[in-house]
Amino acid sequence: MIKELRLAIKLTSDVVHLLRENYMHDAKIINSIGKDIKTDADLAANEHIHNELTKTGIKVISEESENKSFNINENQWIVDPIDGTLNFSRGFGMAAVSISLWDNGFPLLGVVNNIFYDELFYSSSNNGSFRNDKRINVSSISKASNAIICTGFPISTNYSNNHLYNSIMKVKKYKRIRMLGSASLMLSYVACGMFDIYIEDNIYIWDVAAGLSLINEAKGRYFITQGNSVLTFDVKASNSLLDIGC
User: Does residue 245 sit within a domain?
Assistant: First the structure.
């Protein structure tokens, strides 16, 4: 597993360098459908990562994959070349390169590399979670009234009045709510104790796969249930002390 983790760290670092050098504040939108966009930076990042990961002989599933057949129980790399593409395209510093390796429905490793800042999160099974080589753990907040929850509205969100009302009911008891536009970074910040809870419905697996590894190895806990498609999940993660209704 050390070999695979080193590879994932190297690839995220290579892509961060690529994006900073060639696409920072200059990414060109090549597709915009509904609330989602795709840029030339997404495609360049995906090509580099995919070309290298396929050499391992392990299946690769990515946001930019043409073939998105997915079974959570398979041994596979799960990749988001840029988590927070809209943020990246606008120069808002919450976007990351995310790579994870899963097997039998469980994360074996996760790497989240912030594109804008020198902030590298990584974890591997039974070896802990780290931020810039310093071990991290979840917070010790035990009361919802003191907790910070992070969440978001994925591109597939149902914006009906009833759904929005239910969303508000889920988060109103917490001290503060944060929405960063990058699920992998929000989960990373729960893992290192900046935030305490993450909840998001119908989120794509590549948005959360690496972050859930970080949560697990930082002594937190998470729950995922199938969303509206084979690729989406309702995800809850916490520091283990706070009740997230599971």
Answer: no
Note the pLDDT tens digit of each residue in 180-221: 999 999 999 999 999 999 999 999 999 999 999 999 999 999
Backbone angles phi, psi at 219, to 5 degrees: 75, 25
Q: Tell me if 75 sits within 8 A of 102, measured CB to CB.
A: yes
Burial class (CB in 10 A: 0-12, 13-18, 19+), 50: middle
Residue 234 DSSP SS3: strand
Q: How far apart are CA 99 and CA 9, in angstroms?
A: 8
The reply to whether 225 falls in a domain is yes
Token duo for residue 23: 């696409």
- The CATH code of the domain that includes 228 is 3.40.190.80
79 in a domain, yes or no? yes
Instruction: Identify the bridge partners of residue 130 per DSSP, sorted by sequence position.
Output: 122, 135
Are 202 and 154 contacting, i.e. CB atoms less than 8 angstroms apart? yes
Claim to verify: residue 111 and residue 164 sit in the same structural domain: no
pTM: 0.94
Query: Is residue 98 within 8 Å of 119, Cβ to Cβ?
Result: no
8 A C-beta contact, residue 121 and residue 129: yes
Q: Which of 97, 118, 136 is a domain's end point?
A: 136
Helices (H) and strands (E) in the chain, counts: 6, 14
What domain range includes position 27?
Answer: 2-136
**Structure tokens of 192?**
């290192």
Element (H, E) at 15: helix 2-22
115 with 212, same domain: the answer is: no
Phi, psi of 26 (to 5 degrees): -140, 20
- State the virtual CA torsion across 219, 220, 225, 228 in degrees, nearest 10: -120
